[in-house]
Specification:
The protein has 198 residues and is an all-alpha fold. Helices cover 80% and strands 0% of the residues. Helix 3 packs antiparallel against helix 6 and helix 4 runs antiparallel to helix 8.
Length: 198
């Protein structure tokens, strides 16, 4: 790819995110590479962040020999560590996927892979649900001082009042980011695929 094509691709993206602007394959390829590099860095950051969190929470709440550390905090810490481990596996997988993107394949295959890579599917993020539930459980357990039905129910409801809105806001924020940064690329890839098929 020559310098003029790279500049043209950046100029197109600078002016608009509309998928209809990606009529030039070189410009679209440039944008794919930029987004893939951004996602590679992001996945790597979160992978290492959760690995550090695993070490910290394991030291503080699981292997900590302090006899004054209540069992509920150890159980809560175990839930956190389990959740962080699943998150680390999730981000490690996608970090590896983005690093292995092959741009030397045919245009049809490259567009097909990009359309799948930038698609927002529920099944792709279903793996994150156990982690979310484990963090919820960790927060509930840490708030329980006595294991009675009434107290347990009150603590569960208390945590959900704060936790559920935070999760919903996070999910909606993620959707907005996808809509702004990756949906135009997916739409452009799908449109060009239809043209190639035609």
């Amino acid at each position: 790819m020559n310098t003029d094509n790279k500049k043209a691709g950046k100029e197109i993206l600078k002016n608009s995110n509309d998928a209809n602007n990606f009529n030039d394959m070189n410009a679209l390829m440039t944008r794919f590479k930029e987004e893939d590099n951004r996602n590679t860095r992001k996945m790597k950051f979160f992978k290492w962040l959760f690995l550090v969190m695993i070490i910290i929470y394991t030291a503080l709440f699981i292997v900590n020999p302090d006899p004054s550390l209540a069992m509920r905090y150890r159980i809560s810490g175990l839930c956190f560590v389990s959740a962080f481990t699943l998150f680390a596996v999730f981000f490690k997988k996608y970090h590896s996927d983005f690093r292995k993107v092959d741009y030397s394949v045919s245009s049809f295959e490259m567009l097909n892979q990009a359309a799948k890579r930038y698609d927002l599917t529920f099944s792709r993020y279903l793996f994150m649900l156990p982690s979310i539930l484990l963090i919820d459980a960790a927060l509930v357990v840490s708030e329980i001082s006595e294991w009675t039905t009434v107290i347990l129910l009150n603590r569960i409801l208390y945590v959900q009042v704060f936790y559920i809105p935070i999760m919903l806001i996070s999910a909606f924020t993620g959707y907005l980011i996808w809509r702004r940064k990756q949906k135009p690329l997916r739409d452009a890839a799908l449109r060009l695929l239809e043209e190639l098929k035609g």
